[in-house]
Amino acid sequence: AFSVVSKLLSQRKLDLLDELVSAEVLRVLKEKISLLPDTHRDALAADIDAIMYTTEGDVRIYYDDDGRKFVSILMRFWYLNGANLPEEVPGETKVFQIVFGDESTKEKRRLLTANYEFQREFTEGAKPDWTITRIEHPRLLE
Q1: Would residue 76 count as lying in a domain?
Q2: Which pLDDT value is given to residue 72?
Q3: pLDDT tens digits for range 43-78
Q4: Residue 141 lies in a domain
Q5: From residue 31, how far is each of 25, 34, 67, 137 by CA, in Å?
Q6: According to DSSP H, which parts of the chain are helical?
Q7: H helix count then E strand count, the chain
Q8: Is residue 25 assigned to a domain?
Q9: Cα three-residue angle 79-45-114, rounded to 5 degrees
Q10: What's the domain range around 96?
């Protein structure tokens, strides 16, 4: 889900996120994405093969005022991306240079992070669908 959503964000195909992302998050994303420079937008995309590490940051079970039961999982992702970001962009962990072919052909990759929160209602009879309720790409989507 992270790879699919991040690529759709990068391509500005926000209308395809209606069933995956909460309405509130989608509203905020529409505003932020429209203001992003192309280089930052390109850096949002995480190819599934470029995801280096994932971990859960927080897992919560809670009930709303009507007694409905929810589970929320915050996932953290570290992914490599070849977007041409300016060198002064803080927040990245490391710049990798990968050599393909000979020494004169180098490709820079940056290890970027993203936090996505997934929520699902577990009340009996509720749809078994997960919704993304938070999307953070530090230093890119601020």
Answers
A1: yes
A2: 97
A3: 999 999 999 999 998 999 999 999 999 999 999 999
A4: no
A5: 10, 6, 33, 15
A6: 2-10, 23-35, 38-43
A7: 3, 5
A8: yes
A9: 50
A10: 1-136
Q: Is 72 helix (H, G, I), strand (E, B) or coil?
A: strand
Measured between alpha carbons, how far is 61 from 68 in angstroms, rounded to an integer? 11
Q: Does residue 59 lie in a domain region?
A: yes
Q: Tokens 């977007």 sit at which residue? A: 83
**Spatial CA neighbour of 115 closest among 66, 78, 81, 72:** 78
CA dihedral in degrees (95, 99, 100, 103; nearest 10)? Answer: 140
- For residues 37-50, b (16+ Cβ closer than 10 Å) or e, as one string? eeebbbbbbbeeeb
Specify the number of domains making up the chain. 1
Residues contacting residue 119 through CB under 8 Å, at least 6 positions apart: 22, 70, 71, 72, 73, 130, 131, 132, 133
